[in-house]
Amino acid sequence: MTRGIETVGVESSVRTTQPVPSIDEAVGLARALHAALSEVLLGTPAAVTTAVIAALSGSHLLIEDVPGVGKTVLARALATALGVKLSRVQGHPDLLPSDITGVTVFSPETGTWEFRPGPVFAHVVLLDEMNRTPPRTQSALLEAMEEQQVTVDGESWPLPQPHLVIGTQNPIGQLGTYPLVESQLDRFGLSTSIGYPDADIETRLVLHNGGRYALDMLVPVSDPAQWHRAISATASVHVVTTVAEYAVSLVRATRSAGTVRLGASPRAAISLLRSAQAYAVLAGRAYVTPQDVQAVAVACLSHRLIAEGSGGDGPTMVGRILAAAPVPPT
After folding, report:
1. Distance between CA atoms of 270 and 9, rounded to whole angstroms?
2. Each residue of 135-167: pLDDT tens digit?
3. What is the pTM of this model?
4. Three-class DSSP category at 99
5. What's the farthest any 2 CA atoms get from each other in the chain?
6. DSSP state, 238?
7. Checking DSSP bridges between strand 112-117 and strand 239-240, what pairing results, if any?
8. Cα(212)–Cα(230) distance, integer angstroms
9. CA-to-CA distance for 262 and 305, rounded, in angstroms?
10. Could you tell me which CATH class the domain 7-324 is placed in?
11. Confidence of residue 14 (pLDDT cuts 50, 70, 90)
């Protein structure tokens, strides 16, 4: 980077009183995690990279794709590689908020009310087909995803750290679904899709090379403590002011683009820069470049944008903004 330029840090979503771990440890975890996921998700480098960035940046991940392409497999592989428990919740119209957050029950043995945690109390939570759950239940995750806690009957309970929510939905079949509201989408730091594999990859999958078969043999490359340290180290990656201003300019451009009815929020700008830091770590660097911001812009911003008329889909709109925005020198 250009010398003599003021640098700024980005506050981590995971707070710790311990010394900031070295970048080298985070780089090692990032690459080991990427390699592990690539053994399971064949031919999907973009989805694998996005999942790694979500883990390193402490962000939640939305996977939007058709059935049968590996959305759940990716979520399970990520949790297994991180060495943490995965809680899976199947979305359906009868799912209640308490089915996710937990419930307070009366214990005859003790004569007191006791809180019984729901599946959200896990390091990695998969809400499969979350758009099949009614809005009331979807909203149960709003506090958990943003505040890292759950409030039941007036009492708040902290969630385990790190905490990652993975939501999946099928963008094609909309019968009997409840579209995610804007506030819910904005809490997902990144979104990705997997897509159909090419013929060679699909042949390898049917011959038990990759997919669920590779998932059964996957071994952890991390644990909760190491993952926690990697998030803290990633948040310490240097960001020069010009790069931060570039990221903000991209987000602000989404609010004034003629094809966009709803642009990205300040939360999106924070997420964009945190994700760029994670991308830099995956590349083995301790500083962020404009190219890092560009590399994660579609995954960070596209699901947050709502088109005006026939303005195109999210990736197309973000692509136009990237093409029009001046890039600062490095």
Report:
1. 11
2. 999 988 999 999 999 999 889 999 999 999 999
3. 0.89
4. helix
5. 68
6. B
7. unpaired
8. 27
9. 6
10. alpha beta
11. very low
Higher-confidence residue of 42 and 11: namely 42
Find, among 197, 223, 195, the residue nearest to 210 by Cα.
197
Question: Rounded CA gap, 167 and 51, in Å?
Answer: 12
> Residue 192 pairs with which residues in a beta bridge?
63
Residue 308 has what DSSP assignment?
S
Both tokens of 276, joined, read 């760029």
**Residue 64 to residues 56, 60, 286, 330, Cα–Cα distance (Å):** 21, 13, 31, 34
* Token pair in block for residue 196: 């159909």
Amino acid identity of residue 134, one-letter, is P
DSSP letters spanning 225-268: HHHHHHHHHHHTSBEEHHHHHHHHHHHHHHHH-TTEEE---HHH
Query: Which two three-digit tokens encode residue 129?
Result: 């087909």
**Euclidean distance between CA atoms 258 and 309, whole angstroms:** 10
Average pLDDT over residues 87-95: 93
When pLDDT is cut at 50, 70 and 90, the band that residue 311 belongs to is low
